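Much of the work behind modern protein science is quiet bookkeeping, done one molecule at a time. The protein below has been through that process, and both of its lines are reproduced in full.


***
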Amino acid sequence: MNRNVRLVSIMLAFVTLLACLVPFVGRTRPGDHPINSSCTWIENNRRPLNLAVRADRTHLRDDAVTAEDVAIRWADKYFGHLPEYEARRDECMETLFAGVANQHGVDVAVVRQYRFEREDVADAVVFLSCGVLYAEVAFVFAGQIRKRFSSSEPGFWVLTFTLAIGISLVGVTSGILWSIVVEGVRLNSGHLSYRMFRIPFRQQWAELFAGGVVIFVLATLLRARLTSDDAGVKLDDRLRITVSD
């Protein structure tokens, strides 16, 4: 693959990553909800919610996630770095959950549980965007391995598995960082706090690492199948042939 083509492909992948953030920017997010000194829930839409309806379930999830975010920002503002920070944050959160429950005629325990509900679209954006970029990078590195070794040489497999482990580890680490960025943009929050540990990409890092190794090995095998052994002869082999002649 021509070097310029590879660079263009990787640049397009990065642009795609940034474009994934656009849907989350042009809408109301939890971080847009105002906080007040009394830590009370403020919402104009006062009506009972029917949790058998998807739209109402989404509304309750958004309210619960917003209430949690407001409590964290409220504690940051009034009790940041103080010993009672966590206690006051949790106290404010319970007050806000009760406000949401009263606003929509649901049990406060249900509101508390709904803050753990994930937004499937956001999680899919993270997994798909990282997957596409990782596959592109794996294909490029696989081509470099193929240029140096034929598939019949031991070095081919040694380098394949070594790079598969290393690049998969880098991919998972980068994916976790990217998922944190997406989560921050989705919530419009600069302080995710403990919510960072709920991100699926972070929770499933071992499975993603193993999947990354498999994808890299498959990419290498694909490059080996697409390239003949003659085209993959190493430069130093060519030099040895010339000297012996």
